[in-house]
Amino acid sequence: MEATTNSSTEPLLPSRASYARSLSHANNKLRSFRSCLRWMCVDQFDARHAMISLSHFLLGIFVPTASHFVLSYTLTHRAYTIVV
Fold it and tell me: Known Pfam families for this protein (predicted)?
């Protein structure tokens, strides 16, 4: 599609060559997906990564459970301050 101004014609969109850097490639997407899995500690190819994954899992379970019991069994019990 082209726009006409007075007697000159110019394209509304620049040429396709300027979009070459924004084309996606399957290899790039796969590489970023692998990187995402690695950061989420799903990639457990050795003992060190498996221990990191297990420690994150245990912290994710232990910290909320411990905070629930610590906050719900305080010595001073006031009305309307219970843990829901």
Answer: DUF3537
Question: Residue 44: inside a domain, yes or no?
Answer: yes
Q: Work out how many domains the chain is built from and give that number.
A: 1
Q: Is 9 among the domain residues?
A: no
Q: Which amino acid is at 38?
A: R
CA distances 12 to 5, 7, 17, Å, are: 11, 16, 15
Residue 59 CB burial class (10 angstroms; 0-12, 13-18, ≥19): exposed
Strand-pairing partners, residue 4, are: 9
Reported as a single tens digit per residue, the pLDDT across 1-23 is: 545 556 667 766 666 555 555 56
Chain-centroid distance of CA 69 in Å reads: 30
